Request: fold
Amino acid sequence: MLMFGLRLGADPRAVVTTTPRPTRFIRDLLADPKVAVTHGRTIENQENLAPAFLDQIVRRYEGTRLGRQELDAEILEDVPGALWSHGVIDAARAEVTPELTRIVVVIDPAVSSDEHADETGIVVAGKDANGNGYVLADLSGRYTPTEWAKAAIAAYRAHQADRVVAEINNGGEMVEATLRIVDPGVPYTAVHGAAGAHQYDRLAEAIALDQDAALQSASWGMFQILGLNFAQCGFAAVADYVAAMCASEGAQLAAFCGFCQKGGLDRYLRAHDWTQFALAYNGPGEADNGYDEKLAAAYQRRAAANA
Reply:
């Protein structure tokens, strides 16, 4: 809608100021070569701010993750508690792609392509003679079926891949049919993503290798809190946390409350600030999935029922 206000004059321009949250709109603006971006830290504006604000807010949040966003104008792409941060990924990047013995294009198709839909995952990966894996490209995005099929086939050709592999939990035989429209002869394998009881089998295998790492890598309870956050939930060990999550829904609720209180998320709930809560709890993807809107709607339903 902003662009409709720039339809007059030879060179219309707009100045926009905002907290740099990692929404799709902000990312699109940053990627636009016609957009000039500046940053300003809160401390640089201290002459115009109340001393009490600087003393209370800056002192409380300086050096924290939230402070980096609100005070230092950083766009935080990483999700708190994520196993794979941007720093870890960058540190593992290979300067030279080794000779690969196999390359595949993997597709995890979404069921829809509207603005609130999940992305269709399209990743090109390969392995070398020693069994080491490499991610060569990530083309994930919101596509219609024809669009993701064309993107996958283009990647298959560009990387001279051996095969296209697709998860067919969503779509079934239509996934292959859509690919065949674009390239009737592409080598193709359908797989079913592990779900339900299969997830427990995978967890059991991981526990046999490293119990603590396995338990910390799984999400638990109705609030799906990653085991890595056991301490923030109020537990001394991840095994104690998992035992509580398996004991009762009451224990799950208590862990969720501890997670929110120690992480400072409870203030957003008390203020009904669903956007900030969803951003802190669900990560940058909340804006694309509309979690804040779903929280607001759920709260209104409960409030109306209890009125």
The mean pLDDT is 84. DSSP finds 14 helices and seven strands in the chain. Residues 209-306 form one domain. Residues 172 and 307 are 45 Å apart (CA to CA).
